[in-house]
Amino acid sequence: MIDAAACIIDLYRRHAGAWATARGTVLLERAWIERFADMLRRGAAVLDIGCGSGEPIARYLATRGHPITGVDSSPEMIDLFRANLPGETVEVADMRSLKLDRRYGGLITWDSFFHLAPHDQRMMFPIFRDHAEPKAPLLFTSGPVFGEAIGTLGGEPLYHASLDPEEYRLLLDRNGFEVVAHVVQDADCGGRTVWLARQR
Length: 200
Prior knowledge:
Blueprint: H1 2-6, H2 8-14, H3 16-23, H4 30-39, E1 46-49, H5 57-63, E2 68-72, H6 75-84, E3 89-92, E4 106-109, H7 118-130, E5 137-142, E6 147-153, E7 156-162, H8 165-174, E8 177-186, E9 192-199
């Protein structure tokens, strides 16, 4: 499955348009995004890691008055983001080597972080820490248990992985985050396993 993990960026580059069309503009995860937004201080900047096209999550947060910095490893996704949210900041970057030299009032990596192999996921938590202001919320999706799974995008294999929930808790704690909410396979959010944490 590691081969599939190595193909993620190329896969999203080739299928960016089809992904954006399928994703649409309906905020299916509204309850979680609203809860995240409610934790942000007024006007706080948000770092959207694996931002995709910016629809609908980044757009929703922007309409609530939060400047967005979007990063994605697919230049094609970045082009879509720029077209959808021309007033926001966005750049091509691999989250695994992210170093923006600034901190944000909130971080979100929705349906993107879980495409990383387990080792790479572990390495992300110091990156989250280094980009988070005190009290900044962090919202991400994972799998329910340790393991790997293969979905599809454009008829091609799409890699997903997850650490064990207790390891996520340990990594969050070690990097200064406390868990605010964790729901396994949330039936109200398409069966996603969701984590909401806050920097101490």
